[in-house]
Write a sequence for this structure.
């Protein structure tokens, strides 16, 4: 009985627990999915945040989680942003600036364990993960930060006292998975003029936060650190990371780093120390020490990559190594800690087993001090570097003084190195060979400001350096370097009583011969004898730029970058001088003259050859930006030949001078041959700098004269160039194949006199605004040859426009205005207005084949006509007219036209009882028509033949169906009649009707045609101006 009772109690207990769990789950489901839904929770949190924060807080979505994070409760936030209100006027509707954008977060997940809190009064944060946070921490010049956004209520004391009395939480917070992934931080302090940017931030925090004491484990890394101070870039491309334990004492605000490991660009060293907060002054007292633990010199040798030096355990090494530093001082408003670093090697000795030579002496003593607050001068002092033994004797000492104010580099180097002896001291990786000698003795005292100001004549460099028969081969990286001989000699600081400063300035010679460099079978450089001679004139005024001259000789050179670039040079000589500018003696000016003998350049499929070239340049620094030079000068060259697959014709310029400055190139009768065409160019090309550096339009105003232009070849070249451009976009990669090296043998478009084969659109290049005034003697277009062409050609907004172009051909005299626009190879817009006088009908149809569609009856006539037309249409990829988009208006007037079909005329003349049955001639014809929406509207026109006068009008459709009416106005018949003709050419229907046209002169028809032509011209002008079709 008792056993049965126990079972029932257990059963009811389990059922009760199950029911309780179910009720809890149901309650949680209702709360999450019906009460605190994202649509209700998101605006509630935003409203609450606005009450406590002086900021605009926005969330894309806020969602409570339980089942996805079971058994933990969580909250998921997406697309969060915080816009600070610290610097914004709350009374004005001002737009937020960059300084106001405090934080953006892609997503955030926070989960806690409620059971631990309920049972043990402890908070356990299972997850706190921030994905891609971006923080912009800004401090203005008064020291006010944009993150100071917490609103302080007037009754803060009362609220805090009440909460202190009612709260029961008196335990700690356990952190298990606090993570920041791929973050970005910008710290912009205008108060101390510091700017820091960290990208690729990753942070991991685990540990325990107690009421008075805490212990944390931190893992922080960033892919790149950028650091500016007072407009100077001090740090960039620095990868930084730290792993450390941290103790926190809240009573004393003491933070202690334990066993910290710091990683800087792959170099790891240890760190430790304390940070103490000062809540009164809002500062932080920093006392950190760092260093690399190097027990022996062998540890340092092990850092050398295996690809250079074999590692061995039997190496005999002696010497003490020290590498340490401190960061000490106060960090806060107007305060930055002091950084010191020290590196020493004392009494070093290296001897590898089995090697015939050894390093007998190795001593290094380096100390650095950096004070970003500039209370004392920052410097790096290389007190001593000494290495001796086995054909190596190097002594070096130097200082980098006043690093943050006026950097000055002072150094003294004496070295004798036998590269072959290196292989007898160190067990280099397999295959590495070194030969040759280096002997040098140099002394420098260089002010970095002189280098920045290009005042090179004031550089104090003295001594000499010589390399002879140097050969270095590294097989694993496929690097080969051979130098037959190289040397430099500098002289400065020698006494000279004629100069104001009492010493000579920089003079010297640098040169080498027999240079041969290979890198991974991708890059090769071959150079013959090359030298540079420098000389500086004595100064009469030490405040001005020192006058300096140089002579440069480049011997035969070949430079190859695998199969993409080849540069060949026979020889070049240059003279240059650096001197004070005329407008300001403290600003440098460069004068240079360069003479090149036989230059050859090949880049991918492009080629450029010079027989001879001469360049003269004068350059002065810009007043606004010292990094910008303003050049002027000219280029003289003879025998220029070029080729590019983007315009595959041979280009030649026999002899030309181009004058230039930073913004303009001036041409004076520059002759250019493009295949069978020739051009003589006079004018200027402007906006050079802005077009190259700011992607603005390149502009030109040019007078073009020519003896002959072959449009067939040039249009085919544009087509081929456009097709090649599409291949490149699709991934095609050209090479500099040496199979065809002669420019005369490269494949070009055919020199045919007729444009044959299928057509395709050519794309007008973007970013150009060219205007050409033309004077051309002869132009070949299709089978038509034209001469005496005068007018304006404009290339703008990817359009080509011909404006009032006058030309003459064997067929007729013509004037035209036309426009062509194509931004890709799928479609193009074309419009034109053309007037031709006394042109043969067969020539007219040959020039404009589409007239056969507009005037089907033209096939039956021959003779001279006057023809005016204005039309526009879209073209497909094969340059065919898209007929539904065609709009046109035209006149055609002719007299004494011959009906070409004699048999047909004989039958008609017999049937209609012509007086002259042998004269198959139409006395006159005048046709006006319009094309719109795929329909040709032919206005009534008069036809006179023999004793008959008739008016013809109607509609002709693009599908070749038609509907015409013919009114007989004069005939031998005693009455007037009309004929309706409909159908198509294969099946026509005739119907006798009344004459519709009694008065041919309809006033509205001319006005409609003239209006249409005017509208088409206006449309072409709009497309050219705005670039919209």
């Amino acid at each position: 009985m008792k056993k049965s009772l126990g079972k029932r109690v257990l059963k009811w207990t389990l059922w009760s627990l199950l029911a309780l769990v179910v009720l809890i789950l149901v309650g949680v489901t209702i709360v999450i999915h019906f009460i605190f839904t994202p649509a209700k929770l998101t605006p509630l949190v935003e409203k609450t945040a606005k009450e406590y924060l002086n900021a605009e807080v926005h969330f894309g979505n806020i969602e409570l989680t339980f089942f996805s994070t079971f058994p933990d409760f969580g909250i998921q936030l997406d697309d969060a942003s915080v816009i600070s209100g610290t610097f914004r006027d709350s009374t004005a509707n001002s737009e937020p600036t960059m300084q106001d954008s405090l934080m953006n977060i892609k997503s955030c997940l926070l989960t806690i364990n409620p059971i631990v809190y309920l049972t043990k009064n402890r908070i356990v944060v299972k997850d706190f993960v921030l994905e891609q946070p971006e923080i912009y921490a800004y401090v203005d010049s008064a020291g006010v930060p944009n993150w100071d956004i917490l609103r302080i209520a007037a009754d803060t004391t009362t609220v805090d006292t009440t909460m202190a009395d009612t709260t029961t939480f008196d335990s700690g917070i356990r952190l298990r998975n606090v993570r920041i992934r791929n973050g970005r931080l910008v710290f912009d302090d205008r108060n101390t003029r510091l700017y820091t940017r960290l990208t690729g931030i990753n942070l991991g925090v685990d540990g325990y936060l107690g009421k008075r004491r805490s212990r944390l484990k931190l893992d922080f890394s960033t892919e790149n650190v950028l650091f500016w101070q007072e407009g100077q870039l001090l740090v960039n491309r620095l990868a930084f990371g730290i792993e450390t334990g941290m103790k926190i004492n809240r009573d004393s605000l003491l933070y202690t780093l334990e066993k910290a490991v710091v990683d800087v660009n792959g170099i790891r060293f240890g760190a430790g120390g304390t940070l103490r907060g000062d809540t009164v002054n809002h500062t932080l007292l920093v006392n950190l020490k760092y260093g690399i633990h190097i027990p022996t010199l062998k540890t340092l040798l092990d850092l050398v990559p295996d690809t250079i030096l074999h590692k061995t355990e039997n190496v005999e090494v002696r010497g003490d190594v020290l590498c340490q530093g401190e960061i000490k001082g106060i960090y806060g408003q107007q305060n930055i800690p002091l950084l010191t670093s020290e590196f020493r090697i004392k009494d070093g000795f290296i001897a590898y087993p089995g090697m015939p030579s050894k390093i007998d002496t190795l001593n290094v003593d380096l100390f650095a001090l950096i004070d970003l607050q500039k209370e004392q001068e920052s410097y790096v002092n290389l007190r001593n570097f000494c290495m001796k033994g086995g054909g190596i004797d190097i002594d070096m000492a130097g200082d980098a003084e006043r690093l943050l104010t006026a950097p000055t580099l002072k150094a003294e180097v004496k070295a004798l190195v036998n590269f072959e002896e290196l292989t007898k001291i160190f067990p280099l990786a397999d295959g590495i060979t070194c030969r040759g000698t280096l002997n040098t003795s140099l002394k420098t005292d260089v002010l970095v400001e002189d280098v920045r100001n290009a005042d090179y004549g004031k550089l104090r460099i003295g001594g000499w350096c010589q390399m002879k028969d140097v050969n270095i081969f590294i097989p694993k990286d496929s690097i080969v370097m051979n130098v037959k001989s190289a040397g430099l000699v500098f002289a400065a600081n020698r006494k000279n009583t004629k100069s104001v400063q009492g010493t000579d300035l920089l003079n010297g010679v640098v040169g080498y011969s027999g240079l041969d460099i290979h890198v991974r079978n991708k890059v090769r450089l071959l150079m013959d004898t090359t030298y540079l001679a420098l000389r500086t004139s004595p100064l009469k005024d030490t405040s001005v730029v020192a006058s300096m001259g140089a002579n440069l000789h480049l011997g035969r050179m070949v430079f190859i970058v695998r199969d993409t670039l080849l540069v060949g040079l026979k020889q070049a000589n240059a003279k240059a001088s650096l001197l004070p500018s005329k407008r300001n003696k403290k600003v440098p000016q460069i004068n240079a003259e360069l003479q090149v003998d036989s230059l050859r350049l090949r880049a991918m499929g492009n080629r450029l050859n010079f027989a001879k070239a001469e360049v003269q340049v004068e350059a002065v620094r810009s007043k606004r930006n010292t990094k910008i030079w303003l050049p002027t000068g000219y280029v003289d060259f003879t025998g220029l030949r070029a080729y590019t697959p983007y315009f595959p014709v041979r280009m030649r310029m026999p002899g030309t001078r181009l004058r230039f400055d930073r913004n303009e190139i001036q041409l004076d009768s520059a002759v250019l041959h493009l295949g069978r065409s020739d051009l003589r160019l006079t004018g200027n090309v402007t906006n050079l700098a802005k077009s190259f550096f700011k992607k603005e339009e390149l502009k030109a105003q040019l007078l073009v004269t020519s003896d002959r232009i072959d449009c067939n070849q040039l249009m085919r070249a544009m087509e081929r160039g456009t097709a090649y451009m599409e291949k490149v976009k699709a991934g095609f990669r050209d090479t500099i194949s040496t199979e065809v090296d002669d420019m005369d043998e490269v494949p070009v478009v055919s020199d045919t006199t007729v444009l044959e084969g299928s057509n395709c659109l050519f794309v007008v290049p973007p970013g150009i605004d060219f205007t050409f005034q033309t004077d051309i003697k002869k132009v070949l277009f299709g089978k038509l040859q034209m001469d005496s062409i005068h007018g304006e050609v404009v290339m703008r907004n990817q359009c080509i426009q011909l404006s009032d172009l006058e030309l003459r051909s064997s067929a007729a005299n013509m004037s035209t205005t036309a426009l062509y626009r194509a931004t890709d190879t799928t479609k193009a817009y074309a419009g034109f207005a053309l007037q031709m006088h006394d042109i043969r009908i067969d020539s007219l149809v040959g020039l404009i084949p589409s007239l056969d569609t507009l005037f089907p009856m033209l096939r039956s006539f021959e003779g001279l006509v006057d023809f005016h037309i204005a039309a526009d249409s879209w073209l497909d990829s094969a340059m065919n007219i898209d007929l539904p988009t065609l709009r046109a208006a035209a006149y055609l007037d002719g007299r004494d036209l011959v009906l070409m079909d004699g048999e047909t005329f004989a039958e008609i003349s017999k049937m209609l009882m012509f007086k002259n049955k042998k004269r198959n001639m139409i006395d006159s014809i005048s046709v006006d028509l319009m094309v719109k929406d795929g329909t040709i509207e032919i206005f009534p026109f008069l036809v006179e033949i023999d004793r008959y006068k008739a008016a013809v009008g109607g509609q002709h459709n693009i599908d070749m169906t038609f509907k015409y009416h013919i009114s007989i106005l004069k005939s031998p018949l005693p009455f007037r009649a009309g004929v309706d003709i409909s159908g198509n050419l294969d099946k026509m229907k005739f119907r006798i009707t009344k004459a519709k046209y009694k008065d041919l002169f309809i006033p509205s028809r001319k006005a409609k045609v003239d209006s249409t032509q005017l509208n088409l011209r206006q449309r072409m002008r709009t497309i050219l101006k705005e670039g919209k079709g």
